[in-house]
Amino acid sequence: MNVVILGATKGMGRALARLCAERGDRVFLLGRDATDLTRSAADLVVRGGQGAVAGTARCDLEQSDTFDPALADAQHALGQIDAVVVTAGLFGTQEELEADPARTERLLHVNFVATVMFCEAARKLLLSQGGGTLCVFGSVAGDRARKPVVLYGASKAGLAAYLNGLDHRYYSSGLRVICVRPGFVKTGMTAGLRPPPFAGEPDQVAKEVRAALLCPRPVVYTPLVWELVMTAISVLPRALMRRIKF
Amino acid sequence: MRASTRIAGWGGVGTLGEERLSEDLVSATEGVPLSRGLGRSYGDSAVPPASQPLVVGTVLADRLLAFDEASGLLRAEAGLSLYELNRIFLPRRFFVPVTPGTQFVTLGGMVASDVHGKNHHVAGCFGEHVTALRVRVGDGRIVECSPELHPDLFYATIGGMGLTGHILEVTFRMARIPSCWIYQETERVPDLDRLLGALGEAAEKYPMTMAWIDCLKSGPAMGRGILYRGRWATEAEAPKRAPSPKLRLRVPFQLPSWVMSEQSVRLFNAAVYHQHVPQVRRGLVSPEVFFYPLDSIRNWNRIYGKAGFTQHQAVLPASAGRGSVRRFLELLTSQGGASFLCVLKDCGAQGKGMLSFPMPGTSIALDLALRDHTQVHIDRLNELVIREGGRIYLTKDALTRPEHFAQMEPRLSAWQKVRDKWDPDHHLRSAQSVRLFGDKP
To answer: How far is Cα B313 from Cα B382, in angstroms, rounded to an integer?
Structure first.
């Protein structure tokens, strides 16, 4: 499988890139920081051999002019692209975001506007080569708004709506869209937060997401148990949602 | 909500504070007094000082940066775990040159503790195989050091308990192994003299040796135990398949403190001793079983309950003779120190790390549940260690008194000088350095 990953240097993206490298896939890494990309590429080469990494390119969600050149580099290096994966995104707790409007604006912009614009670029590229998989990390926070993740959840809910529509519109053209909805996963992003029950590990997410890349489905909850958790939360009455803390 | 969490050593001694986890150690370590890996040091060496309860958690900084198959040289970020390293490199027939008794440690921790293992008598400590370190020193600078480049910092950092700098990257030489299986022989030995003799003999023939002893047994059978000796199996001996990963159990919650009573430990020890039949057993085992028997039970520290436990590991110099081990065990059994794990290992030459623990002689490691009298027990054991000319292992320690440590460690002032040179204000410190070296609490 030839996979392009935006956000492969950290957290779940790092875990996914490692799994792909160890299973014999070829990955192309996109990210903000050239040094960081080089170090992650080295890590993947030690794990999966020279063939594991096709290359790296600088791509910053906050600089939309980096999207097309980075994707073109990836296509040039890989030939056919099987999947473009986006794990990059920002996070802040509700308290942190409420206290800092500038940070909130940036988060909403990166997680929704910028990610959608990147997906548009990736979509065009995938369609131009006859199809492929676009796999984007949303969050269970985008399912039903909850007190601790109102702003972050809203950015991911918007993204989920976009991905859903993309699937309807381009399925017949060969585009396979996956919206990954991780539950609480122990990464640098959630460091310092108290892990709830069912908190997952990045390695587990990587396994489930790679399986989804091989056999795409529009929505992937990961770890799987979060599908049940979110189903339960979705049926809670509003009066209760106003009271409970999570 | 971001909340403060309990930051504790493996034995349970700790403080409330914040563990800052980050993939990027360079920015995370700025202005922070201490780094911490997987938290397997038993005492307070990975616990931050109370007035600045902030540590950098290194486990997310776990990238492999370079590996040269021909030389075995490997460079990686300090948070990489030994577990991951084994997972990747065992099938390729490479293994760390020295491994401690658990694989849930990070490379940074292995350097800071200058860990030793069953092969100490032939391979020395982990630090002997380290060729370079990248370190953030007390004034914030990032420094590469090696035996050639800033050797003072290099050797002060190996075994320096993270007090000379945040360890960011480690370069060391992996060892080639003939197979991924171990040929092991275990032997039940009825008393201390014969056990020490057998340990010495085994060391001449086998690269890996250690002994478990029933340290509650006094009288003529004092020091009875089981000797372990092993080597990597040859390619011809070993099965073609790789060992399958072991099932891991968990201790789901902290057991009540009475579980580890003297009676229960006495029964446990007797059972372990007597179930070893016939007297000598031989066979192939996986490295996991051989090196990391306790890893099969995650959170095994919970068996000691809320009160927690400490470990006391001391090395008694060969120059003090075998009688020193006998005197140590006599003191231990007279105190009634219930230890369910008591491990003997004959150590080889002293390492180059300025505070590195082992010296030629016999190392004795034991677990002690924390009770009201534990401090007194530790003090008495330490007084004996001082009389015999030995020293203790800081990675295990939570209770040693500063004056005792100073008496055991004639090398301390030389190490302090290097520390003062690189960090005159002692920005870098831990609860342990506050306790033992008088750093600002």
So the answer is: 10
Distance CA B169, CA B108 (A): 8
Backbone angles phi, psi at A154, to 5 degrees: -60, -40
Fold observed for domain A2-243: Rossmann fold (3.40.50)
Question: What whole-number distance in Å separates Cα of residue B295 and Cα of residue B293?
Answer: 6
Q: Which of A11, A36, A42 shows the shortest C-beta gap to B64?
A: A42
Report, in angstroms and rounded to the nearest whole number, the Rg of chain B calculated over CA atoms. Answer: 21
Whether A191 sits inside 8 A of B22 (CB atoms) is yes
Nearest Cα residue to B120 out of B378, B332, B313: B313
Q: How many CB atoms lie within 10 A of CB B431?
A: 26
pLDDT digit string (tens) for A76-115?
Answer: 999 999 999 999 999 999 999 999 999 999 999 999 999 9
Closest-CA residue to B5 (of A195, A149, A241): A195
Task: State both tokens at B358.
Answer: 């082992």
- Rounded to whole angstroms, the Cα distance separating B370 from B11 reads 9
What average pLDDT does range A1-23 have in this prediction?
97
Q: Are A192 and B21 in contact (CB under 8 A)?
A: yes
- CB pair distance less than 8 Å for A42 and B21: no
- Separation of alpha carbons B190 and B20, rounded Å: 49
Q: CA-CA distance, B297 to B139, in Å (whole number)?
A: 41
Q: What does the domain layout of chain A look like in residue ranges?
A: 2-243
How many CB atoms within 10 Å of residue A65?
8
ipTM value of the model? 0.93
What span, in angstroms and rounded, lies between the C-alpha atoms of A124 and A114? 16
Distances (CA, A) of A125 to A5, A71, A82, A132, B347: 14, 8, 11, 9, 63
Q: Is the pLDDT reported for residue A58 higher than 70?
A: yes
CA angle centred on B137, ends B135 and B143, rounded to 5°: 45
The answer to whether residue B236 neighbours chain A at the CB level (below 8 Å) is no
Distances (CA, A) of B88 to A25, B80, B296: 17, 12, 19
Q: Go through the domains of chain B in sequence order and give each one's CATH number.
A: 182-239+254-406 (3.40.462)
Q: Is A63 helix (H, G, I), strand (E, B) or coil?
A: coil
Positions in chain B whose pLDDT score sits under 70: 1-3, 247, 337-338
String of b and e for A199-230 (b: at least 16 CB within 10 Å)?
ebebebbbbbbbebbeebeebbbbbeebbebb
B66 touching A (Cβ < 8 Å): yes
A32 Cβ under 8 Å from any chain B Cβ: no
A47-51, A226-230, B159-163: the lowest-pLDDT one: A226-230
